[in-house]
Amino acid sequence: MNSKGIGTKKLTSIISLIMTVIFLSILLPTNLIKAEEKSDSMSVEKVLDSEMYNKFNNEILNNKSSINYTTDNNQGTWPVNWEYGNVSNKNKINKSVYGKNQPLEYNEGYLTKKAYTTDEDNVFDINLKIQGKKNQSLKKDVVFLLDNSNSMTTNNRAIKIKEQIKNVMDKLNTNNTRYALVTYASTILDGRYYHLIDRSIGDNKYTVYKGYTSNQCYLNFTSNIQEIYNKIPTTVPNQRNNGYVGGTFTQEGLLKAIELLKNSDADEKIIIHLTDGLPTFSFLLKEFGGNEKAIFDYNTQYNGIGVRGFGTSYFFNTKTQKPYIYSREEVYSALNRSKNKYEAIWNNGFPTTLEAENIKKENPDINIYTIGIELKKRVYKWTDNRQYYDAEGIVELPEIRKFLESISSSPAEAFLNENVDDIDEIINKIIDKIKNSINNGTVIDPMGNMVDIIKSGEFSDKDYKLTASNNKLLEGVKVGYNEKNRQIVLTGLNLGENEWVELNYKVRLNTSNPDFNGDFWYQANKRTVLNPNNKEPNVFRDFVIPSVTGKRPSIEVKLKKISSETSKPLANSEFELYNSINEKLGSFTTKENGEVSLGYLQEGDYKLKEINPPKGYILSKDFIHFKVKNGKAIQDENEVEFITVSNIPNSIRIKKTDDSKLESDAKFLSGAKFELNKVNDKNFKPLVKETDDKGEIEFKEIEPGTYYLKEVLAPNGYEQIKEDIGPIVVDNTGVVTIPWDKLKSNDVEKWNNQEIIRIKNKKLKSAIYIDKVDAINPEIKLSGAKFSLYTNDENYKNNKKLVRNGINYYLISEKSSNDKGRLEWENLNSGEEYKYLIQETEAPKGYTVSGKEILFHFKDNIALIDNENDVKALASINGQVISIKNAKIYKLPSSGGIGVYPFLLIGTLCMALSLIYSFNSKFSNKKK
């Protein structure tokens, strides 16, 4: 039945995304992966007998000894039964041999592989041919899965499809082929009882439809074509008074067809599915995702909770408008195990697709062909003229095609028919596929150990020639080259009787390999196999492998990699070697001693291209040219022992200056320390360096990564830059990239228009605070004291100058202490080169002038007194605060007082008493 339900563009995009993910998962050919594993499972450089090959399902029907090989340690490996390939008129040195009595015959077809010499030294043509056979000897069971929904009346589809099914049976008719028929609509039409509920009336009212379906199935396998033909309906449920059974329950139909084939012992199991619509029923999806089987509720009793949809809509309803709701099913949720959350299920297609995925994983030996008959875009929208609506939506043709592909064995088994009258063309294609002995076959053809494929850059159709007995056989055939495994992969082969495909390409002996021997037979390829059918991924058929020999190379050429500054050897430098016609001859990596052999090279011109430089060095972008002539390696017109290539070490350079605007005025700052840190590398030990007298630092031989600079110590007397400087990126070619647009600020810029980071420091500004206090009680703060501050900074040069110890001091300013005894000077230059002098010019009222000048400077923003011994009784310092003491002035009593005489009398009396005591002491000592 055609899709009668349909959604908004948003719903359509969601369906498209879901289908895309599913198709990506089923498009990956499992046979290719398994074949690659098998291709390396045994060495082809040993004597391989047919017994060993039989373990790999070979079953050669003729010339069984052809895949035996002779191996001689001094001469190489070649087929036991061999014959020479052609011999070039121009090239008498190169030779090739291949197996006699080809092609090899297998159950699925015939395989041929040969090698031929060419006019060019060490170059060979490889010819590989695959031919199909008649495939009627195998036992086949075919299930016709037929959609008999009500829409099959359109264009008399039901009648025409019946005849096409008979056409298939007639053309496949053999004693070894049996058939069965599963016909479905809203359920399987095998005479079963049905029970459906119509809630379209609204207001929670509903109508029940129940009864028995007609029996349009044949659920046993039979070779009697007429028995199947008699069961194929020419009418639809609506014409058989079962209109409410006229939906499309694709999922249930697939499950029934698989049920029949699971018990089959046939060699080939086939489903041919014919439908004219997207599903309008599906089973309730409960869980999916997480690389596990999707889980459904298969409860079908009385249209139980396990069945979703009502036969008229692909989409589920998202509207709540009543009473006219014809599509009673609303969007529901299922657990997405990969995200561990519930997600909305918008239509019947998604559950059906997941069921098909389950089926294909569990039954890889069953081929499912699907034909979409006259499927077109359907659009349903609400209008006031209608008394009901289907869930609104649009299903575009690309989404329809993706759905058909998802329920088929692969996209190649899905077909979209535009007109039922033209369906015979599709039917014939399916018949051909069934009759083919090779279905979706794959050839894996690895290069031999001493052989390289010849290609111009990236592998393309220019590097091979593909022909066939009929060009239509090349439709869907793809040829690729796996660089990592060095193998050609040929996929999409579908061949029957007298049908063949042939592949031709060129290879070259790798004479630059140090192990190459000119008098040795090398196998042109490793084990080359055909997987005849992607449904049997573990079955391989072997080609016989040809062998080739060429001429001995002239001399061994060695490369040496050194530093351009120190000439020390550099390891891990990667090169590619090319000849004069730009053919790549090999890849090489220097060892710890900086050397690597380029192999034995014949006379000619060569060039090296550095691909990856040693860590900490800049990639050499130019080709390194040299030649081999008269048995010597020649570089720059000189005979050399080594082809020598030097690299320049990369570096991050810093210029440290003050903040002068002009570079010519800049002062270079030494003593600044910088740390170079690497992002996201716990094993990296930060590099620390200090600027020299020119303010320079250079970090050399920096490995690839992202770095930041951090100033960990500022020059004396300058402010430290707190922000990290970066990011500075060193790429895999060793090039250092400094993002000047991001670094440009008041502190960082380019120096002298070079790749040098100028980092500017501002002079460190300090402050000095004077606290004027009483000499006896420092808690008493003295206001009104006047001070002058002088400095040796020539920027303050004026006529108010003092000279002390040969140093000129210039007046900065004069200030008085406030009512808290404090006066201060700010924005003073810091650093030992800046000297300061404080002079008290006027004492606070009632106090004496200190009379001592205080000399000081700043270090790390802390004031230090230079003449501390001279002023320690007068001044003390704490950080940036200097406390200066002043003594009180004590005055004699004024007139009208007691005068000085009492004090003089007391003093005289004290002196007299002292003299008397002294005299008595001496007299007493004499008497003793």
Automatic annotation (TrEMBL):
Gene3D superfamilies: 2.60.40.2110, Immunoglobulins, von Willebrand factor, type A domain. Pfam families: GBS104-like_Ig, SpaA, VWA. PROSITE patterns: VWFA. Keywords: Membrane, Secreted, Signal, Transmembrane, Transmembrane helix. Belongs to the serine-aspartate repeat-containing protein (SDr) family. Residues 141-430 form the VWFA domain. InterPro entries: GBS104-like_Ig, Ig-like_fold, SpaA_PFL_dom_1, VWF_A, vWFA_dom_sf. It comes from the Bacteria. SUPFAM superfamilies: Cna protein B-type domain, vWA-like. This is VWA domain-containing protein. The chain crosses the membrane at residues 12-33, 898-919.
